[in-house]
Write a structure and sequence with these properties.
Elements: E1 7-8, H1 19-25, H2 27-30, H3 41-44, H4 46-60, E2 68-71, H5 74-88, E3 94-98, H6 103-114, E4 118-122, H7 132-138, E5 143-147, H8 161-171, E6 174-178, H9 190-193, E7 197-201, E8 212-216, H10 231-234, H11 242-280, E9 284-286, E10 297-302, H12 307-316, E11 319-320, H13 336-340, H14 345-349, E12 351-355, H15 362-382
Parallel strand pairs: 1-11, 3-4, 3-5, 5-6, 6-7
Antiparallel strand pairs: 2-8, 7-8, 9-10, 10-12
Helix pairs in contact: 1-11, 4-11, 5-6, 11-15, 12-15
The structure holds pyridoxal-5'-phosphate (PLP).
Pyridoxal-5'-phosphate binds near residues 181 and 203.
């Protein structure tokens, strides 16, 4: 199967698996395919590799390896943290979160609501930031856990998790952060952050899909979400995904090494793309605070055109970008994140996210900047006319 060239600007959706990571995991698919819980050494010898990977991912976030629970993905980490907090404090039936979380959190909270729990979805300001006074005031005596993402997957806006964790501590509530988008882009030090739980997903870090982790701070009670065998020291049932765990460990090492590149070269590429679009395309505007923001993410609206059409025409020239989260793509609803920021629905529907990563080059940014203005102009020429004038169908015909 040969793949035509792609220009990949969707690194917040998923990332290319690094060749070094493929290399590291292959022996665990081909030769060492045993079960680490087995009594014989062909299986049991794998436990050493699991622990080696655990030490590597722990080092990425400055945790103790015993504080790491491997999960299947970021979604599982988020669900597990909330589930554990509510079982630990059965008398506390309130969860505080924000209106701009990933569906991995929002959907779980909505399900909790249906089961009688009280959930507060904190609103955000028009630039996507949080009002910490409001957050503090919203923590109740019966708040079991506060769950706030570190960096928004759609806008890249960063929340001050260290301050939020301090507020939670002072109010006696547990604190979880969804750090899925922060990993590999921001330095993570769980000791300095002071959170009780933190979730990561390996496929945002140039490792395969199907593996993630939940950091559980020492001495914080943990109730497993998935019950079964005694794996993960009784904290997560299910035979360990050894090849992917090994891959995650290798990816964590690489992520630590490329943090500087992310914040210098990748940031410069993102800035070039963003400023090039804003300067070259009339009626384009950024969404979300300029800073603090992930170094790789730009979210822009294009007056008078639907993102759906833009993405279709971008796809025809090999450019991968997205509107909103990959997990909600396909839905015609405007982004809940942009709506929560007070963005009118029409503007939210015209927004496209570009998220860069370590494999992007300046030539790719130039390529995108060459194609986008023509695509937007074409869509605008085809867009339905102003009210009162005959409407033309908005189409995204092949070039
Ligand atoms: C902020 C955030 N949280 C959670 C997730 C879910 O991660 P996973 O796909 O590993 O379940 C994502 C995925 O895009 C995300 O961006």
């Amino acid at each position: 199967m040969s793949q035509p060239p792609i220009y990949y600007f969707d690194n917040n959706a998923t990332t290319r698996v690094a060749p070094e990571v493929v290399e590291a995991m292959l022996p665990f698919l081909k030769e060492y395919w045993g079960n680490p819980s087995s009594a014989y050494s062909f299986g049991h010898q794998l436990a050493r590799h699991l622990e080696d990977a655990r030490a590597k991912v722990a080092a990425l976030i400055n945790a103790d390896p015993r504080e790491i629970v491997f999960t299947s993905c970021g979604t599982e980490g988020n669900n597990s943290a909330l589930h554990s907090a509510l079982l630990t404090h059965p008398d506390k039936r309130h969860v505080l979160t924000t209106a701009v979380e990933h569906s991995a959190n929002i959907k779980f909270c909505q399900a909790l609501q249906k089961r009688g729990y009280a959930i507060t979805f904190l609103p955000v300001e028009s630039d996507g930031s949080l009002d910490l006074h409001l957050l503090e005031k919203s923590i109740r005596l019966d708040t079991a856990i506060v769950s706030v993402m570190w960096a928004n997957n759609e806008t890249g806006v960063i929340f001050p998790i260290e301050e939020i964790a301090a507020i939670c501590r002072s109010k006696g509530a547990l604190c979880h952060t969804d750090a899925v988008q922060a990993a590999g882009k921001l330095k993570i030090d769980v000791k300095a952050l002071g959170v009780d739980f933190l979730s990561l997903s390996a496929h945002k870090l140039h490792a395969p899909k199907g593996i993630g982790l939940l950091y559980v701070k020492r001495r914080v009670k943990y109730h497993p979400y998935i019950l079964g065998g005694g794996q993960e020291r009784g904290r997560r049932g299910g035979t360990e995904n050894v090849p992917c765990i090994v891959a995650f460990g290798r990816a964590a090492d690489l992520a630590a090494a490329s943090l500087h590149d992310e914040n210098t070269r990748v940031r410069a590429l993102r800035d070039k793309l963003e400023s090039g679009i804003l300067a070259g395309i009339p009626g384009s505007s950024p969404n979300g605070a300029k800073e603090p923001r992930l170094p790789n993410t730009a979210n822009l609206s294009f007056d008078g055109v639907e993102a759906e059409g833009i993405l279709l025409l971008l796809d025809q020239v090999g450019i991968c970008a997205s509107s909103g989260s990959a997990c909600t793509t396909g839905s015609l609803d405007p982004s809940h994140v942009l709506l929560a920021m007070g963005c009118p629905p029409a503007r939210a529907r015209s927004s496209v996210r570009f998220s860069l990563g370590k494999y992007n080059t300046e030539a790719e940014v130039d390529y995108a900047l060459r194609h986008l203005p023509g695509i937007i102009a074409r869509l605008r020429a085809n867009a339905p006319a102003e009210p009162g004038k005959p409407a033309r169908r908005a189409t995204a015909q092949p070039a």
